[in-house]
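Late entry, evening session. Most of the bench is empty. Finally got around to the prediction I had been postponing all week. Sequence below, unchanged from the version circulated by S.P.
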Amino acid sequence: MRPISYPLLIGGLVLLIAVLAFTSLAAGRVWVPLPYWFSQADPRGAIVLGLRLPRAMLGVLVGGALGLSGAALQGYTRNPLADPGLLGVSAMAALGAVVTLYFGIAAASAWLLPVGAVVGAMGGIGVLLLLSGRTGGVIAFVLAGVILNTIAGACVSLALSLAPNPWASGEIVNWLLGSLQDRSIKEVQWAAPFVSVGAVLIFLTTRSLDALTLGEDGARGLGVNLGRTQLFLALGVGLAVGGCTAVTGEIGFVGLIVPHLVRPFVGARPSRVLLPSALAGAVLVLAADILVRMTPGAQEVKLGVAMTAIGAPFFLALLISMRRRLA
């Protein structure tokens, strides 16, 4: 597929986000027409402003952060399988948050839960890059992610088995499934600073990501400080993914899917993939969230479960395609 005009692609994605955000405010088990959105006399106005507006804002924030993080990891490692959820970064963020919940640390201050998730995510991305190395192949990178996912999953399972009461265990499981349901503007305020700082740090690595397409030696020859690039990337992805996971739980595969969808339109240069991936991630999460709230049943499907149902076949198709190219 031939690359298209970059401004046209960005404009189209922004317009699509606006349309989906508008739809997100109206859609649900109870459809709310526009005239009732800001009505104080009608309870539907409270539904829109109190529940659906923060949900739409989180959809944009979380989708953008995960899409951007996935594109940055794929560009840095030159590995098409890089994704925060698939490689254990989201699981480590969840573990950090669960630790604050289990030991009651989060009760001391609302900010300690996202801080725990951010610390877990940064630790995860640091260990991942250390285990696989910048030049590690697909197998080494995936195995490193499997190790992280296994360790994080085992620790979370231990916390669940030792939970002081069934209610606490149920709350942790429900949170881990990943959802934008019943979030308030407070969750947006918690996540936004972490995601914003993380995004800035990731965008500061654009020149280095482009240079790394020539290999490490070529990048050094162009004056790139690889140590600083790795630090900025670890901090940026950790802050962005940790901030999101702290308020929504684990939502996987966004960072794997969207870079592959936008790359045919912009080319393989990593710096050109970052912004479209962030916008496409917001589109994907908003669209998926609208669909899950429309599913029949007493309770809506968790967004994390829906994204796994979408992402797992995509991951399998990607592996098959890579195997055919290497054969």
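Two things to note before I forget:
The radius of gyration is 20 Å.
The chain has a mean pLDDT of 85.
Will write this up properly tomorrow.
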